[in-house]
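Deviation from plan, reported transparently: magnesium ion complex.
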Amino acid sequence: MAASILSVLTEHERALREGVARLSEGLPVAIPTETVYGLAADATRGEAVTRIYETKGRPQFNPLICHMADLEMAERYAIFDPLSIQLAQAFWPGPLTLVLPLKPECDIHPLATAGLDTVGIRVPKGFARELIRALGRPLAAPSANTSGKVSPTSAQHVAEDLGEKLSLILDGGAAPVGVESTIIRVEDGRVRLLRPGGIAVEKIEALLARPVERGLGASPAIEAPGMLASHYAPGASVRLNAKEAEAGEALIRFGGKPVEGSEQAAAVFDLSPSGDLAEAAANLFGLLKLADACGAQRIAVAPIPQHGLGEAINDRLMRAAAPRPEEN
Ligand code: TXA
Ligand code: MG
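Because the crystal trials were delayed, the predicted structure below was used instead.
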C-alpha cells in the first residue's frame, strides 16, 4: 500500500473530507502543521492511538501531544492555571505546547498520555486546526517520522519515510516554522521549559515578565521531551561547531559566513545566507536530509547563535550529533 497524497491547497474540501473519513475509521493520517508534519489520530480512541505508535516504532511510554481547535476545547480536557491561560491566549494557535493536569473524567485515551495525569496540548494553525474542528475531537499527533529520525517538514519527507505504512498524506507545502513546538509546564507559578521550539523563550519571558527555568530539575524522567541522547538522527554522523570543513564532509553553514576548507567538502549548504534564525529553523530538517543524501559519512555544522530560535536549532543539532543507541 502506498499512501495517497492530497493537496490541502488545491483540493481543500476533499482533503478535509477524506481526512475526517480516515480519522473516523481510526486510521492515522499525516497532516501539515506550521511546525512539522504530524501523524494524527483521534486521541479518544485507543486503537487509533496504538496505530500511531506502531507506525512510528515509538515506545509507548513517550506521551503524544494532543491538538485542539481552541482554548475552549482544551479546557474540556485540562485544568488551566492563570499563567498557562495567558500563554494560550498569546500564542495559540501556534507552536506552543502546554503540559497541564488532565481532567480525570475526560475521554482522552490513556495511551495518548502514556498513562500520565498530565496532557501536552497545542492548538495548531491552519489546516490542522480546521481538521480538528471538522472531526470535533482532539488529535494526538507526534511528528510523522520513524521514531528517532529527522522530523518531516514536507509531504515528500513523510512519503519517503512512512508512505508504505499510511493510507493518506495531506500536503500543505513546506512547514513554515520547521522545528517542533516549544513545550512549557507551569507548576506553582514556576514556568519550566521542557523543550525549546518554535516560540523563542525570550518571547515567553517578555509576556509573563518572569524567567523561564531551563533544565529538567527534579522532574520525572518522562518530562525529557524529544528524549535524551540520540534523536533527530540522520544516517551520517554530525559534527557541531565546525570552524573548518574536513575532506569529504557535507558542510552546513550559517549566515553566509565562509568556512575554511569548504573546497574539500562534498557539498556545502547554508541554513540562512542572511543569518535569519527563523529561516534557519525552517530549513534545518530539510538540509539535514539533503546533506545526508549526498552520501557523506559526516555532516559538519558551523556554530549557530544560541538566542531566539537558535536555542531550538542547537537543541535539535545536539540530539542529531549525540551517540546513537547502537554505538554506545
Ligand atoms: O510541533 C510539534 O510539537 C509537533 C507537531 C506535529 O505538533 N509534534 C511533536 O510531537 O513534536 P512529538 O511526539 O514528536 O513530541 C512530543 C513531545 C514528546 O517528547 C513528549 O515526551 C512530550 O512532548 N510530551 C507529551 N505529553 C507530555 C506530558 N504529559 N508531559 C511531558 N511531556 C510530554
Ligand atoms: Mg518527534
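DSSP finds nine helices and 14 strands in the chain. We consider this an acceptable substitute for the interim report.
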